[in-house]
């Protein structure tokens, strides 16, 4: 090719105008030289070619043109293919855009759902927080209440302990005081007993002496009377004897003058001498009687003195008793005063029982309060345990919720990251689209960009698909988690309801048991029992019976002692007086021996009768019960007017309850029905009216009742 | 005391029955022992037994009075022997000391001693372990409570008598010195529950029920 100077470059606008008619893609620009209408300022003669050059240039131009046309056609075909591909890509892009929009919509929906879930979670978290706070508040309140209760309990315990200590101290003081009082009283009793014994002994001695003296005096009086009579007889006899003596002396005097009847006179003298001796003896006896009379008068005076002494001793004894009584009262008053001084809040003796009662009541109240406080404390402990358990469960729930929240937050973050990446991708895709749109006009260099764009689009589509799958999986996971949480919540709620129901049932049962216990305790205290498994027994030889026998025995013993004392007095009298009372004593001692033997035999017989009676009466009672069908209980009672009355309580062996009892009163041979709850029943009262009031037959009534209850029992 | 025949802390049925019946015997006497000091005791103030008929003994760590009255002595001796027999057989359910008005026979107070027997000991004859000190401590507590109960019991201003009821099983044969009786209940009583003591074989609970005083009702 012939080098020639290149034509000058035309301005850009002209180049573009030229380019519009030609395909893009070739890098060479074909410049067709033509006489340009534009007149250049600079001459270009050196640039004029010859005809050959022009022909060469034309040929080259045509070659270039043909090649350019070929290229253009190639480019056109390529452009068409590219256009097709572009259309396809556009369609795909549209499709991807639609998918993208769809994904965006789903993403927005997922976002919305996520927000809703977040809100729900937040609500749940807030609810759980609030519940947790409430639990904590309630727990704090329970703790405060527990502390208060513990403090109250401590106070109550301390007050109970202090009151117990006070009571113990008081009891100790009381025991000490009682012991001291007892010791003093014992000593006083001993002294008093000794004094009493001494006084009794002296009294009894004096009484015995008195009685002795009295008996001696009586006997002496009797003897005196007898002796007086004897003396008078003797006096008369003496006078007669004196008279006879005088006559005998006279006779003797006359007899001295008459000697032949000497034997008769001697006999007479002897007789008279004997009579004189007898009379002398009688005179001596009379003198003795006189001396005894004088002695009797002396004894009488002594007796009077002893009587006066006895009266004085009795008066002193009564004074002593009064003094002792006043001493006792003084001792009691002093003890009460010392006790009152020791006891606080007591100013007078009347306050002491009230104070004791109040102290006892306080102790009982404090014990009751303590028991109540213990019960409440236990209840509080149970409530505290429940609250702690609920607190722990709430903590666990809160921890679970927190964990879930964290997971959800992480998921949200992940989703946000995904969203940001997606938005970045979207922006990038938009930029790419814009670039592709801008690059649409350039045909030549668009293939590579199209390919790159395609790859990028494919990559973005793949990424989007992955993101979409991840989103779907996260949404499914979230849904599953939500479902699980809801199930857990429902289970927990059901459990709570069950526990609450169980607690209520347990509380009801405990209240029922407590009421049963109190009822049973009241029944136990009242003395109720089941007749099917229990029977009530009491001893027959009650102290009343024994005391009556004892009283009779004591009365007999006192009489025996009196008789013994009299006997002693009589024996002493016998020793003093001598022969005149011996026969009487022997008779009395024999009688006493007989009486003693009789008393011993009677006592033995009484004991035997008692034992036999007890045996027989129990057999008799059992036989009566089995024969007549009634258990009979006999009680001695006294009416308000003081009349003793025997009450019989009959219970049929066919009775169906303990309340089916008939009562009868026996008074001076008459038996009458006592109205009670059982006999006032209509059917029973009807029978009472018929059999007892009209027909006046209690056996008929009881037998009719027995048959009826037997029939009822057998039929039932 | 019968329990001294057994090892110190091992309680047998016989020993436990002896402890329980003796306790009741002392408790029955106990009712009059503090009356002298407080002037409101039950038997002393009623004048059922005179003052000189009581003697002081030390039992269960406390001073107590026993009666000299031969009748009461023999009554309580017969009673405690029969109660021991029933306790050993495991047939005794309750012992009740009833205090009644002498004139009207109205029941004024009921001292209820409920007894729960370990059936295994009665059937198989096994023994239990419990220290004497602990049993005595429990008995002391009850004695103190009985002594202090007179502060809230109503005053008995009329002469009174006492009787003893035994609640036994239905199949127990009635001795010839015992008869069946009504339970001598009090209508609408006030009740106070006292402590109980336990020998591991017999558990004895004490409860006193008394007729409402007119002043209290007002």
Topology, pairings included?
The complex is a heterodimer of chains A (716) and B (218).
Chain A: H1 12-20, H2 51-257, H3 262-342, H4 351-439, H5 446-526, E1 534-539, H6 543-577, H7 582-628, E2 630-638, E3 644-652, E4 661-667, E5 670-674, H8 682-694, H9 698-715
Antiparallel strand pairs in A: 2-3, 3-4, 4-5
Helix pairs in contact in A: 2-3, 2-4, 2-5, 2-6, 4-5, 6-7, 8-9
Chain B: E1 10-11, H1 13-33, H2 35-38, H3 42-46, E2 54-59, E3 62-67, H4 70-89, E4 92-101, E5 107-117, H5 119-124, E6 128-129, H6 132-148, E7 160-169, E8 178-180, E9 190-198, E10 202-210, H7 214-217
Antiparallel strand pairs in B: 1-6, 2-3, 4-5, 4-7, 5-10, 9-10
Helix pairs in contact in B: 1-4, 1-6
- Main sheet makeup of chain B: 5 strands, antiparallel
Beta-strand percent range of chain A: 5-15%
Number of DSSP strand runs of chain A: 5
Counting H and I runs of at least 4 residues, what is the number of helices of chain B? 7
Largest sheet of chain A: 4 strands, antiparallel
Helix content of chain B: 25-40%
Strand content of chain B: 25-35%
Q: What does the oligomeric state look like here?
A: heterodimer
Number of extended strands of chain B = 10
Q: Which stretches of chain A of 5+ consecutive residues score pLDDT under 50?
A: 1-6, 11-31, 33-44
Amount of helix of chain A: over 70%
Largest protein interface, residues of each chain: A-B, 56 and 55 residues
Q: Please give the alpha-carbon distance between the first and last residues of chain B.
A: 47 Å
User: What is the molecular shape of chain B?
Assistant: globular
CA-atom Rg of chain A in angstroms? 74 Å
Which series of helices and strands of chain A comes N to C? HHHHHEHHEEEEHH
**If strands are numbered along the chain, what order do they take across the biggest sheet of chain B?**
7-4-5-10-9
Protein name (chain B): Mitotic spindle checkpoint protein MAD2
Main location (chain B): nucleus
Domain HORMA (chain B): 25-208
Keywords (chain B): Cell cycle, Cell division, Mitosis, Nucleus
């Amino acid at each position: 090719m012939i080098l020639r100077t290149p034509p000058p470059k035309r301005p850009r606008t002209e180049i573009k105008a030229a380019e519009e008619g030609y395909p893009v893609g070739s890098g060479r620009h074909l410049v067709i030289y033509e006489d340009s209408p534009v007149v250049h300022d600079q001459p270009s003669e050196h640039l004029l070619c010859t005809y050959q050059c022009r022909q060469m240039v034309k040929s080259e131009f045509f070659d270039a043109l043909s090649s350019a046309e070929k290229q253009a056609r190639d480019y056109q075909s390529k452009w068409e293919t590219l256009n097709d591909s572009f259309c396809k890509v556009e369609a795909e892009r549209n499709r991807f855009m639609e998918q993208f929009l769809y994904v965006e919509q789903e993403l927005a929906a997922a976002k919305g759902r996520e927000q809703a879930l977040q809100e729900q979670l937040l609500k749940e978290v807030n609810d759980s927080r609030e519940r947790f706070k409430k639990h904590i508040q309630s727990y704090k309140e329970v703790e405060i209440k527990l502390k208060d209760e513990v403090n109250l309990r401590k106070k109550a315990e301390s007050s109970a302990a202090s009151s117990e200590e006070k009571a113990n101290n008081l009891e100790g003081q009381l025991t000490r005081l009682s012991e001291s009082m007892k010791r003093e009283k014992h000593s006083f009793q001993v002294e008093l007993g000794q004094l009493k014994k001494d006084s009794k002994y002296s009294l009894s001695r004096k009484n015995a002496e008195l009685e002795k003296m009295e008996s001696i005096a009586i006997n002496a009086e009797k003897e005196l009377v007898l002796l007086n009579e004897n003396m008078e007889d003797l006096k008369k006899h003496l006078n007669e004897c004196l008279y006879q003596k005088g006559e005998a002396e006279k006779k003797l005097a006359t007899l001295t003058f008459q000697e032949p009847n000497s034997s008769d006179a001697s006999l007479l003298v002897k007789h008279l001498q004997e009579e004189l001796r007898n009379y002398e003896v009688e005179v001596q006896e009379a003198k003795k009687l006189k001396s005894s009379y004088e002695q009797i008068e002396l004894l009488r005076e002594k007796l009077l003195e002893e009587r006066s002494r006895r009266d004085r001793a009795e008066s002193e004894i009564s004074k002593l008793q009064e003094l002792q009584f006043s001493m006792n009262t003084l001792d009691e008053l002093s003890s009460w005063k010392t006790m009152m001084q020791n006891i606080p809040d007591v100013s007078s003796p009347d306050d002491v029982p009230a104070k004791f009662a109040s102290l006892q009541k306080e102790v009982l109240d404090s014990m009751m309060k303590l028991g109540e406080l213990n019960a409440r404390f236990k209840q509080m402990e149970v409530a505290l345990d429940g609250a702690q358990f609920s607190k722990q469960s709430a903590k666990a729930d809160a921890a679970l919720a927190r964990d879930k929240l964290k997971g959800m937050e992480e998921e949200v973050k992940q989703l946000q990251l995904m969203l940001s990446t997606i938005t970045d991708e979207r922006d990038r895709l938009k930029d790419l689209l814009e670039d592709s749109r801008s690059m649409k006009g350039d045909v030549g260099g668009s293939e590579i960009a199209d390919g790159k764009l395609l790859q990028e689009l494919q990559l973005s589509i793949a990424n989007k698909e992955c993101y979409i799958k991840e989103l779907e999986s996260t949404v499914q996971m979230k849904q599953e988690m939500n479902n699980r949480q809801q199930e857990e919540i429902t289970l927990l709620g059901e459990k709570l309801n069950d526990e609450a129901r169980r607690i209520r049932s347990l509380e009801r049962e405990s209240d029922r048991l407590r009421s049963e216990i109190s009822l049973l305790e009241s029944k136990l205290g009242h003395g109720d029992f089941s007749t099917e498994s229990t029977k009530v027994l009491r001893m027959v030889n009650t102290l009343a019976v024994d005391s009556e026998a004892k009283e009779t025995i004591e009365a007999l013993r006192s009489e025996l002692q009196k008789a013994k004392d009299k006997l002693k007095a009589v024996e002493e009298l016998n020793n003093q007086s001598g022969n005149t009372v011996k026969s009487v004593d022997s008779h009395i001692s024999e009688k006493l021996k007989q009486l003693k033997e009789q008393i011993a035999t009677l006592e033995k017989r009484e004991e035997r009768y008692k034992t036999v009676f007890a045996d027989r009466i129990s057999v008799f009672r059992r036989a009566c019960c089995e024969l007549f069908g009634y258990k009979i209980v006999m009680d001695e009672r006294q009416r308000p007017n003081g009349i003793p009355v025997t009450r019989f309580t009959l219970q049929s062996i066919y009775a169906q309850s303990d309340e089916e009892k008939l009562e009868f009163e026996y008074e001076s041979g008459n038996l009458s029905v006592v109205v009670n709850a059982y006999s006032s029943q209509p059917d029973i009262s009807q029978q009472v009216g018929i059999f007892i009031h009209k027909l006046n037959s209690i056996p008929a009534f009881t037998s009719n009742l027995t048959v009826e209850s037997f029939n009822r029992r057998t039929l039932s | 005391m019968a329990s001294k025949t057994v090892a110190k802390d091992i309680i047998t049925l016989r020993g436990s029955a002896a402890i329980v019946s003796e306790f009741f015997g002392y408790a029955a006497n106990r009712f009059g022992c503090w009356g002298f000091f407080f002037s409101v005791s039950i038997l002393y103030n009623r004048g059922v037994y005179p003052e000189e008929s009581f003697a002081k003994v030390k039992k269960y760590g406390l001073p107590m009075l026993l009666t000299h009255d031969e009748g009461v002595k023999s009554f309580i001796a017969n009673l405690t022997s029969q109660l021991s027999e029933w306790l050993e057989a495991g047939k005794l359910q309750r012992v009740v000391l009833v205090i009644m008005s002498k004139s009207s026979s109205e029941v004024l107070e009921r001292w209820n001693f409920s007894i729960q027997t370990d059936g295994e000991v009665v059937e198989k004859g096994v023994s239990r372990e419990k220290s004497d000190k602990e049993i005595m401590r429990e008995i002391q507590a009850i004695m103190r409570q009985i002594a202090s109960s007179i502060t809230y019991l109503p005053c008995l201003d009329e002469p009174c008598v006492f009787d003893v009821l035994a609640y036994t099983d239905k199949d127990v044969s009635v001795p010839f010195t015992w008869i069946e009786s009504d339970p001598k209940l009090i209508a609408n009583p006030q009740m106070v529950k006292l402590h109980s003591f336990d020998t591991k074989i017999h558990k004895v609970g004490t409860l006193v029920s008394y007729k409402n005083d007119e002043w209290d009702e007002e």
